[in-house]
C-alpha cells in the first residue's frame, strides 16, 4: 500500500473483502471511527464486514493490507464474533451520513456554505499505517420545496452546492443534530433482506433508530417491525405519531400486529385500534381475546380461502402473489361462503403440490384433503407443534365451535413461540467457521 491512500467511505461500503489466498471473506458494510478531544482528525479503527450468514463482524484496520477500487485485502484470520459497537465508537455510514454540520474557512465562505449536510467522508492512511478521517464531502443544507424533495427521493439526486472540505474546518460532526435524515443510511443497506435490515436497525441507538423508522414507508416499516424484538417494536411504535402508528399496524400481518398491541399499555392499544379502519381492527380485536400460546393466539386471520367451485387456475393465481408468505402459499383452504374469516363451514384444504398436478380447469372442491383435522382456537402450543411435526405440515387450519375457518397457524408462528424470547438478538451468535 502506498504511503498515502485515500478512500471515500460511500465507495468503500459494499466492496468485497478477501483473505491473502484470494477467498472472499465478506463485504464491507461500515467504517468505525473514534473521535478524540486531543486529535482533530478521527482515527479509523476498523471496518464492519458482513460475512456469510449475514453476521456483521469487526475487522481491525491493522489487518487491512490493501484497499483498491474493487476489493479490500486482509491478512490473517477474521474474528467471527458478532460486532458490538462500543460507546466511544462511531459508525460513519449509520451515524454520520446526513448529519447537519457547520463549515468554516475561505472556500466555504466563497461558496456561501455555512450549514451543510454530510454526504461522505474520506479516510486516509498515513506513513505509519494508521488511518484517519481527513475530508468531508458536504452539501449545502437547504429545505427546498416539498416537490423538489420528493423528486430527489425518486431520482436519488440531491440539489444544493457541494464541496470537499478539510475535516478540521467542520464542526458538529461528533455532535448529534436535533433531527437527522436516514436517507443515505438506507441507500447503503438497500440490498439487505428485511430481516437483516431489522438487525442493523436494532443495533442503532434509540435516536437513530427512530430516524430510520421515520424514513421508511409504512409497508417496509411494517415488515421490519415484524423482525424486531418486542422492546424495539414498542419503542418505535411509541415514537411514531398515533395516525402513522395505526397505518403501520394495518400494514403488518394481523398476528404480529396483535402481538405488538398486546405489549402496549391498554389505553394506547385501544387508541390505535380506534384509529384503524374497522375492517382492519376487527381481526386484531379477535386475536387479542386468545391466549398467546394457543392456536388462536398464534394464527393469522388472512389465509388463502376459496369456495369449492373455484378452479385450479384461480387457486394457483392466488398462491402466486408475491406478498404472500411461503408458508401461507403452500395451502389453499376451502370453505362455504363467506370466504372472509370467519368463513362459512370449513370443508378441507388443498396442498400446492396437488394443485400443480391437476388440470387448470378442474375445481378445487374435487381434490380436497379432509384427512388433516382442523385445530380449535384453544389448542395449546404443544398440540399445535406436535400436529405440524407429525404430519410434516407447514400450516394448519383453525376453526371455531361452529366449524367455521377463523385462521391458520404456520410453522414460523410456532417457531417464534418455541424459541427463546431473545432469539432475534442472539440469532447470529452461533459459532461460524471462517
Automatic annotation (TrEMBL):
Keywords: CBS domain. PROSITE patterns: CBS. Gene3D superfamilies: CBS-domain, MgtE N-terminal domain-like. InterPro entries: CBS_dom, CBS_dom_sf, Mg_transptr_MgtE_intracell_dom, MgtE_N_sf, MgtE_transporter, PRC-brl_dom, PRC_barrel-like_sf, SH3_actinomycetes. Residues 299-366, 368-426 form the CBS domain. One of its GO terms (cellular component) is membrane. GO terms for molecular function: magnesium ion transmembrane transporter activity. It holds the Pfam family SH3_actinomycetes. PANTHER family: MAGNESIUM TRANSPORTER MGTE. This is Magnesium transporter. It comes from Intrasporangium chromatireducens Q5-1.
Amino acid at each position: 500500500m502506498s504511503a498515502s491512500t485515500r478512500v471515500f467511505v460511500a465507495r468503500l461500503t459494499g466492496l468485497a473483502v478477501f483473505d491473502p489466498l484470494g477467498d472472499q471473506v465478506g463485504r464491507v458494510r461500515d467504517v468505525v471511527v473514534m473521535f478524540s478531544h486531543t486529535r482533530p482528525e478521527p482515527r479509523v479503527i476498523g471496518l464492519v464486514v458482513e460475512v456469510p450468514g449475514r453476521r456483521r463482524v469487526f475487522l481491525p484496520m491493522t489487518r487491512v493490507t490493501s484497499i483498491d477500487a474493487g476489493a479490500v485485502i486482509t491478512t490473517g484470520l477474521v474474528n467471527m464474533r458478532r460486532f458490538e459497537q462500543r460507546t466511544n465508537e462511531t459508525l460513519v455510514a449509520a451515524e454520520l451520513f446526513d448529519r447537519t454540520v457547520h463549515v468554516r474557512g475561505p472556500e466555504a465562505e466563497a461558496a456561501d456554505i455555512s450549514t451543510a449536510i454530510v454526504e461522505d467522508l474520506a479516510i486516509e492512511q498515513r506513513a505509519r499505517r494508521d488511518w484517519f478521517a481527513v475530508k468531508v464531502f458536504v452539501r449545502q443544507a437547504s429545505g427546498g420545496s416539498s416537490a423538489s424533495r420528493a423528486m430527489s427521493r425518486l431520482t436519488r439526486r440531491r440539489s444544493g452546492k457541494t464541496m470537499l472540505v478539510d475535516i478540521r474546518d467542520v464542526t458538529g460532526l461528533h455532535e448529534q443534530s436535533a433531527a437527522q435524515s436516514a436517507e443515505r443510511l438506507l441507500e447503503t443497506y438497500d440490498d439487505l433482506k428485511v430481516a437483516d435490515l431489522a438487525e442493523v436497525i436494532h443495533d442503532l441507538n434509540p435516536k437513530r433508530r427512530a430516524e430510520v423508522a421515520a424514513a421508511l414507508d409504512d409497508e417496509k416499516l411494517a415488515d421490519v417491525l415484524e423482525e424486531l424484538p418486542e422492546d424495539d417494536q414498542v419503542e418505535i411504535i411509541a415514537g411514531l405519531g398515533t395516525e402513522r402508528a395505526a397505518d403501520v399496524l394495518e400494514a403488518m400481518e394481523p398476528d404480529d400486529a396483535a402481538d405488538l398491541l398486546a405489549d402496549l399499555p391498554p389505553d394506547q392499544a385501544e387508541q390505535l385500534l380506534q384509529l384503524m379502519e374497522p375492517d382492519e381492527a376487527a381481526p386484531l380485536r379477535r386475536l387479542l381475546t386468545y391466549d398467546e400460546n394457543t392456536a388462536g393466539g398464534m394464527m393469522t386471520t388472512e389465509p388463502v380461502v376459496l369456495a369449492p367451485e373455484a378452479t385450479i387456475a384461480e387457486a394457483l393465481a392466488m398462491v402466486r402473489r408475491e406478498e404472500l408468505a411461503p408458508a401461507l402459499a403452500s395451502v389453499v383452504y376451502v370453505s362455504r361462503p363467506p370466504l372472509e374469516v370467519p368463513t362459512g363451514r370449513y370443508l378441507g384444504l388443498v396442498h400446492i403440490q396437488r394443485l400443480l398436478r391437476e388440470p387448470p380447469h378442474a375445481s378445487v372442491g374435487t381434490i380436497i384433503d379432509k384427512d388433516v383435522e382442523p385445530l380449535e382456537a384453544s389448542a395449546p402450543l404443544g398440540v399445535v407443534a406436535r400436529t405440524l411435526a407429525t404430519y410434516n405440515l407447514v400450516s394448519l387450519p383453525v376453526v371455531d365451535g361452529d366449524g367455521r375457518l377463523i385462521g391458520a397457524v404456520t410453522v414460523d408462528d410456532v417457531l417464534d413461540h418455541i424459541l427463546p424470547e431473545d432469539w432475534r438478538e442472539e440469532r447470529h451468535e452461533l459459532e461460524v467457521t471462517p
